[in-house]
Amino acid sequence: MAETVAPSPDRRLTFEIAGAQYLTHLEEVMQRKRTTVQDYRIMLRRHLAPFFGKRALGAIEPVDIGDYIAAKRRAGLAMKTVTNISSSRTACSRSRSDAAGS
After folding, report:
1. Are 48 and 19 in contact (CB under 8 A)?
2. Tens of pLDDT along the chain (102 residues)?
């Protein structure tokens, strides 16, 4: 198994990069099934990256999350779907802040 080293914290780290790092974490550290990682990859690529991708993690505020949820609901996604996708966003952000604290 490959050793995963947490990168040094960077306030300019974008959501897109953190998402890619989270996918690597799921594969290499958490050893999630290939299909599970693929589901996360699809959520990131189709839903989260277009909205948050180039933004710094530290710049994403609660109001931005509300705006994202509202946009997805207007686009016709069910609330359960939006909640599931939003949980992935939270996991990406939490994974980075956990790594920064270690």
Report:
1. yes
2. 455 555 445 567 899 999 999 999 999 999 999 999 999 999 999 999 999 999 998 888 999 999 999 999 999 999 999 998 988 787 777 765 555 544
Structural domain harbouring 80? 15-101
Domain count, the chain: 1
Burial of 43 (0-12, 13-18, 19+ CB in 10 A): buried
DSSP string, the chain: -----PPPP-TT-BHHHHHHHHHHIIIIIS---HHHHHHHHHHIIIIIHHHHTTSBGGG--HHHHHHHHHHHHHTT--HHHHHHHHHHHHHHHHHHHHHHH-
